[in-house]
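Need residues for this backbone.
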């Protein structure tokens, strides 16, 4: 049966964050005849999207945004990694706005791309998703959307959220036909543009009604402008919603699995990198996500596992809930082990010592520090009263890092930033390391791969132990006298 595909002329994306911004930009980039508007309540964020400096750092993002938002009057060759895309001259078709109601009312397809964090209560044994933003945005859409509009869940949501969206639409616009699709995003921060340009798959979940399948076909049409149809997977709504949680849970599980092996390696003399190399050759296992390190961070892995655990609990599947909870337990165990090693290598105390931290973002090529392992390491180090914790990250704005630290510790009433407290955020890595007793490399930024070891004598504290660390991750190695614990996060999502 040929399905009645709506000719999509106008798309609105609600939520101009790490997902909404880049996703809408790539859709607009590849569909010059579709008008794409990204809306957000955050005026500052929209102002940045309309400036020469988008609010987030992603390789290739600036170029894609410029082509679609500003238009071009000559053919442009766009190169990102292995990709070369030739863009003929075009008018602008990407817009950023704070006028949610107007932009939603004009759209054939409305993406819901708002934040869905973890509820702050009940964390530790599964926690429900905080749906405040999603419900608010759904209400706004329900009031403004034109009849027949297709509402697409781009946000990561608990299984069966489409029913809540449907009920909300029905309450506000009884009897008006809307179709709801689930289209979770699988991009990883740091490689967002590359992932969007060449996705492993596009997942579309729909109700299996004629209207639902037709809506899915319309969305498929949008993606097929640049994605081969063989990569577009269509499933039912609930499978699509749950697939996103499962994908993140299984990626995080691999990181926790290899990290448990690193703990065994340190006590036996086996080398976790060699093990990863050996088992990664097994085609059934594959070599990705096998790098032992500080554990995963970022705004998604933990929250999505907690959401999965919560779901299992509400379904009275306690064993299943316990199983997935272990992934988070091991992640915390690994980070605690690392901090204990730092203290042990400094003769059991941090008192009077300066500890330097290179890398504060949760992974390389992003300025995102949400749930960064570095944040947790700083918290643990503080308990040992170092004289200074010196932070440097090549992409995080020092003022943003300071604001975040103030926010994180606001409830404790403690003043942690210098001059009253021990934390200082530097603009220069050498200054951050000057007179330091230990340098902890917590984000795998390329520029930290080969730290300035030759400078050791001049920059490190005279009490620092004499041996120099290998320029490789060391947590999985047999303990040696390290003055630099060179850690890399192995988080991707
Ligand atoms: P984000 O916090 O960066 O962006 C969300 C934006 O939505 C914010 O700018 C906020 O102001 C806006 N917003 C909230 N309510 C609104 C409303 N009613 N009207 C207009 N704007 C509103 O979040 P994000 O990282 O982009 O994540 C969005 C969703 O995508 C989440 O569900 C997340 O789990 C999922 N996801 C994130 C990633 C990632 O790498 N960050 C990857 C895949 C999926």
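Answer:
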């Amino acid at each position: 049966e040929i399905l009645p595909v709506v000719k999509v002329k106008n798309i609105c994306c609600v939520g101009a964050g790490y997902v909404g911004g880049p996703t809408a930009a790539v859709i607009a980039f590849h569909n010059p005849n579709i008008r794409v508007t990204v809306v957000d309540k955050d005026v500052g964020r929209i102002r940045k999207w309309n400036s020469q400096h988008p609010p987030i750092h992603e390789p290739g993002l600036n170029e894609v945004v410029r082509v679609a938002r500003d238009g071009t009057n000559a053919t442009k060759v766009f190169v990102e990694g292995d990709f070369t895309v030739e863009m003929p001259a075009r008018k602008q078709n990407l817009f950023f706005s704070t006028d949610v109601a107007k932009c939603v009312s004009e759209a054939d397809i409305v993406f819901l791309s708002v934040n869905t964090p973890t509820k702050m209560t009940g964390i530790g044994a599964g926690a429900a998703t905080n749906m405040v933003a999603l419900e608010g945005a759904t209400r706004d859409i329900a009031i403004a959307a034109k009849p027949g509009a297709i509402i697409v869940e781009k946000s990561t949501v608990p299984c069966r959220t489409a029913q809540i969206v449907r009920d909300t639409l029905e309450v506000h616009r009884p009897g008006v036909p809307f179709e709801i699709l689930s289209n979770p995003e699988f991009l990883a921060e740091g490689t967002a543009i590359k992932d969007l340009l060449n996705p492993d798959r596009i997942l579309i979940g729909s109700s299996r009604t004629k209207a639902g399948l037709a809506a899915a076909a319309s969305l498929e049409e949008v993606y097929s402008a640049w994605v081969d149809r063989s990569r577009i997977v269509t499933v039912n709504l609930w499978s699509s919603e749950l697939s996103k949680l499962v994908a993140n849970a299984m990626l995080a599980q691999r990181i926790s699995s290899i990290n448990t092996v690193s703990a065994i390696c340190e006590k036996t003399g086996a080398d976790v990198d060699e093990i990863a190399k050996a088992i990664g050759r097994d085609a059934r296992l594959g070599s990705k996500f096998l790098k032992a390190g500080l554990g995963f961070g970022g705004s998604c892995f933990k929250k999505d596992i907690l959401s999965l655990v919560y779901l299992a609990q509400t379904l009275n599947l306690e064993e299943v809930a316990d199983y997935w909870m272990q992934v988070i337990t091991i992640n915390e165990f690994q980070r605690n082990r690392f901090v204990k090693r730092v203290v042990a290598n400094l003769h059991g105390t941090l008192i009077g010592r300066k500890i330097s931290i290179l890398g504060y973002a949760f992974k390389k090529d992003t300025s995102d520090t949400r749930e960064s392992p570095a944040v947790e390491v700083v918290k643990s180090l503080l308990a040992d009263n170092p004289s200074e914790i010196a932070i440097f990250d090549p992409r995080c704005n020092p003022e943003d890092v300071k604001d975040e630290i103030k926010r994180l510790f606001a409830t404790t009433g403690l003043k942690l930033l210098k001059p009253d407290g021990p934390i200082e955020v530097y603009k220069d890595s050498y200054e951050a390391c000057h007179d330091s007793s230990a340098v902890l490399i917590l984000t795998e930024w390329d520029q930290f791969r080969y730290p300035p070891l030759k400078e050791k004598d001049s920059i490190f504290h005279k009490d620092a132990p004499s041996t120099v660390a290998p320029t490789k991750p060391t947590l999985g190695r047999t303990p040696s006298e390290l003055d630099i614990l060179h850690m890399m996060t192995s988080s991707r999502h």
